[in-house]
Amino acid sequence: MKRLSARFKVWLDTSDGKGVLGDGKWTLLKAIEKKKSLTAACEFLKISYRKAWGDIRKMEKILGISLVEKHRGGFEGGKSCLTREGKELVRAYTGFHNEIEKALRKAYIKHINKL
User: Fold this and answer.
1) pLDDT tens digit sequence for 88-112
2) Residue (of 34, 85, 92) closest to 56 by Cα position
3) Which among 109, 2, 13 is positioned nearest to 62, based on CA atoms?
4) Strand segments (E) across the chain
5) Structure pTM?
6) To which H or E segment does residue 10 belong?
7) Is the dihedral of CA 101, 105, 111, 115 positive or negative?
8) CATH among 2.60.120.200, 3.40.50.2300, 3.40.50.1370, 1.10.10.10 for 18-110
């Protein structure tokens, strides 16, 4: 039998089913913080600026908080960074994601790895 692996997708919804945050938006926020630029994050992730900015605005509207600060132009161009709330959200989701991943590995070893 071929070796199997377990994968998962997780996201956070509002009580009325509006998607707020999942792995894609989490990755985008982390890339903005790392690259210090929304444009550079989009290029790195190979996603459109329009989609990324739309996703950020949607999250901010639903959560009622600002996640990204944008600073326009200048000699070296603009920059973007996460707000304190944006950093807290990334940190919390990272912990949440890591715990789920750990539980998945444990369940896989217990139930599937024996096959």
Assistant:
1) 999 999 999 999 999 999 999 999 9
2) 85
3) 13
4) 11-13, 19-22, 68-71, 79-82
5) 0.89
6) none
7) positive
8) 1.10.10.10
